[in-house]
Design brief:
Organism: Thermomonas aquatica
Subcellular location: Cytoplasm
CATH topology of the largest domain: Isopropylmalate Dehydrogenase
Bound molecules: nicotinamide-adenine-dinucleotide, 4-hydroxy-L-threonine-5-monophosphate
Enzyme class: oxidoreductase
Mean pLDDT: 97
Function: Catalyzes the NAD(P)-dependent oxidation of 4-(phosphooxy)-L-threonine (HTP) into 2-amino-3-oxo-4-(phosphooxy)butyric acid which spontaneously decarboxylates to form 3-amino-2-oxopropyl phosphate (AHAP).
CATH architecture of the largest domain: 3-Layer(aba) Sandwich
Order of helices and strands: EHEHEEHEHHEEHHEHEHHEHEEH
Number of domains: 2
Low-confidence stretches: none
Distance between the termini: 13 Å
Pfam families: PdxA
């Protein structure tokens, strides 16, 4: 089966459009359907001196490399490196159109480039990230997991102020996230009995309650209950040593309590080849692990490896789901 994947470039002033142009030069085992703005893509192609052929559904492609385009125009051709809040609604519309195509069965999965959260908020749309948008759109609880060839890091809390994190670590939230991670590792990654390491929140996992009580009051009792149902959970572990290579080899994924507890380790270990996978959606969604890199936009310097890895990962997940169904 050759999956049909919706591909969303993301913020037009960032590196997303040029990475899509680079993807258009490659052969993937998938048909890519771009949900975005033709002018932004052609401008990126011109900046990189690369060919780009696009066709709408029903049109005859002018080249075998032509990609189908679902056009969602941006009202403002923002300069490279300068996001324009007037484009917030169209950036979000491209994401929701692609998501709907997946829910309707027109696409088998969705790959997204980077969006600029601040620009979308400045455009008047409350937005904490694409994962949250897709979760609300599909009415599902979703867990963000970033992965490369070295480590998989799932996040209990994601885009919230650090001050709010401790209050968000509740038995219900932890229970729900661990069930989603366990089920996804079994279904989407083919791991029969996944082992998930759960980090503590506090230094040294709370030092027996002397450095914080979340481990004793929330994390440990939740892990015990889920172990009783057969989930293989290790922890709560002190975060500073949980990622040592010797330990990591025993884990299929690590659940971090907050964004910057887990992601710096993952991005340091291999930034170029990591991807961001949304666990719990009714369709596969995979994103790049990097942001809009406004400093590089239009210069031809951005590394497309994460987007290529995201396309390959999404295609594999889509094929797996299709064959399981
Ligand atoms: N997948 C996503 O949608 C996503 C992921 C992370 C950050 N963001 C958003 O992106 C915006 C900018 O975030 P940031 O500056 O913290 O992170 P960033 O990833 O955009 O940039 C961090 C550094 O990495 C470099 N970099 C990033 N991608 C690169 C690539 N493909 N090739 C070479 N170098 C690359 C940049 O030049 C910069 O020096 C923020 O609004 C943030 O929320 C979006
Ligand atoms: N937390 C992600 C990262 O740092 O790579 C990122 O910002 C993307 O999140 P969304 O896919 O939810 O936009």
């Amino acid at each position: 089966m050759r999956p049909r994947l919706a591909l969303v470039p993301g913020e037009p002033a960032g590196i997303g459009p040029e990475l899509v142009v680079r993807a258009a030069q490659q052969d993937f085992d998938a048909d890519l359907v771009i949900h975005g703005d033709a002018a932004a893509l052609h401008r990126a192609a011109a900046a990189l001196s690369l060919p780009l052929h696009l066709h709408r559904a029903g049109e005859t492609p002018a080249s075998p490399r032509s990609l189908e385009l679902v056009e969602i125009p941006h009202p403002d051709q923002a300069a490279f490196g300068i996001p324009e809040p007037a484009n917030a609604a169209s950036v979000v519309a491209a994401l929701t159109r692609a998501a709907q195509a997946c829910l309707d069965g027109d696409c088998d999965g969705m790959v997204t480039g980077p969006v600029h959260k601040a620009a979308i908020n400045q455009g008047g749309i409350a937005f904490t990230g694409t994962t949250g948008l897709l979760a609300a759109h599909a009415r599902r609880e979703v867990v963000m997991m970033l992965a490369n060839g070295i480590v998989r890091v799932a996040l209990l809390t994601v885009h919230m102020p650090l001050r709010a994190v401790a209050d968000a670590i509740t038995p219900d939230a932890l229970d729900g996230a661990l069930r989603i991670v366990d089920a996804a590792l079994r279904r989407d990654f083919g791991i029969a009995e996944p082992v998930v390491a759960v980090l503590g929140l506090n230094p040294h996992a709370g030092e027996d309650g002397h450095l914080g009580r979340e481990e004793i009051e929330v994390i440990e009792p939740t892990l015990q209950r889920l172990r009783g149902e057969g989930l293989r959970l290790v922890g709560p572990l002190p975060a500073d040593t949980a990622f040592l290579p010797g330990k990591l080899r025993g884990f299929d994924a690590v659940l971090a309590m907050y964004h910057d507890q887990g992601l710096p380790v993952l991005k340091y270990s291999d930034f170029a080849n990591a991807v961001n996978i949304s666990l719990g959606l009714p369709y596969p969604r995979v994103a790049v692990d990097h942001g809009t890199a406004l400093d590089l936009a239009g210069k031809g310097l951005a590394d497309p490896s994460s987007l290529f890895a995201a396309i390959r990962t999404c295609a594999r997940l889509a094929r797996q789901r299709r064959s399981a169904a």
